[in-house]
């Protein structure tokens, strides 16, 4: 984890300065560093910090807009083809914010229940993977607009979710595979015709 040193607000943008150490090893200008699971480009490097710009799409979609100076953030450099993959492929393209609606102790673990817009729930699969503030986690329960993940004590200490309280927001990136499958199944060859309605061609194509 890193710590927010400063935040500069621009016109529909943010500039973040993050204090960190480990993630800067062999880092260089222009590298990508996922910050709370959001892929950001390094625009300036110091011995113990980096800065990054956030455009409007990033500000709008993510919890980076809710950060204050002193907040902790998850940090991760991009993997290489030689990197062992212990979770799943994460792009750093956040779909939406989720809200913590319940935290339940269960033995050594804590279950965090996250609420998201229902339209994103179709990409959440029980025992599938979801990314929360950049951390690849296993979905262990599903509701209509909520899902749950379970954290062991080590994970609670290592990622931001372990510091969250009910009502806090977290970045959610759903599994990329589901989005591609949906796109392939729904896509129609040929030009898109808005409000085409029922035509003879449509009826013939569908067996009428």
TrEMBL record:
Annotated Lumazine-binding domain ranges read: 1-88, 89-185
Would the keyword Repeat be found if you checked this record's keyword annotation?
yes
Alphabetical GO biological process terms: riboflavin biosynthetic process
Q: Which UniProt keywords apply?
A: Repeat, Riboflavin biosynthesis, Transferase
Biological pathway: Cofactor biosynthesis; riboflavin biosynthesis; riboflavin from 2-hydroxy-3-oxobutyl phosphate and 5-amino-6-(D-ribitylamino)uracil: step 2/2
Q: Where are the Lumazine-binding repeats?
A: 1-88, 89-185
Substrates-to-products reaction catalysed: 2 6,7-dimethyl-8-(1-D-ribityl)lumazine + H(+) = 5-amino-6-(D-ribitylamino)uracil + riboflavin
Q: What is its EC number?
A: 2.5.1.9
Classification via Pfam families: Lum_binding
Does the record carry Transferase as a key word?
yes
Q: Identify a single GO molecular function assigned to this protein.
A: riboflavin synthase activity
**NCBIfam families in the cross-refs:** PRK09289.1, ribE
Any idea what job this protein has? Catalyzes the dismutation of two molecules of 6,7-dimethyl-8-ribityllumazine, resulting in the formation of riboflavin and 5-amino-6-(D-ribitylamino)uracil.
* Name the UniProt record assigns to this protein: Riboflavin synthase
The organism encoding this protein is Fusobacterium necrogenes
What does the organism's lineage look like at the top? Bacteria, Fusobacteriati, Fusobacteriota, Fusobacteriia, Fusobacteriales
């Amino acid at each position: 984890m890193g710590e927010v040193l400063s935040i500069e607000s621009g016109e529909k943008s943010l500039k973040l300065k993050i204090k960190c150490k480990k993630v800067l090893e062999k880092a260089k200008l222009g590298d990508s560093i996922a910050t709370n699971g959001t892929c950001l480009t390094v625009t300036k490097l110091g011995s113990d910090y980096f800065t990054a710009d956030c455009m409007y799409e990033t500000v709008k979609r993510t919890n980076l807009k809710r950060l204050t100076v002193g907040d902790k953030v998850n940090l991760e450099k991009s993997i290489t083809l030689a990197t062992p993959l212990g979770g799943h492929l994460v792009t750093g393209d956040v779909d939406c914010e989720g809200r913590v609606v319940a935290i339940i102790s269960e033995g050594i673990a804590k279950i965090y229940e996250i609420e998201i817009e229902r339209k994103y729930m179709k990409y959440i699969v029980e025992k599938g993977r979801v990314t929360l503030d950049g951390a690849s986690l296993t979905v262990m329960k599903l509701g209509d607009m909520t899902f749950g993940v379970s954290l062991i004590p080590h994970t609670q200490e290592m990622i931001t979710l372990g510091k969250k309280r009910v009502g806090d927001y977290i970045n959610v990136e759903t599994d990329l595979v589901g989005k591609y499958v949906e796109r392939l199944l729904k896509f129609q060859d040929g030009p898109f015709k808005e409000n085409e309605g029922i035509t003879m061609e449509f009826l013939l194509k569908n067996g009428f």
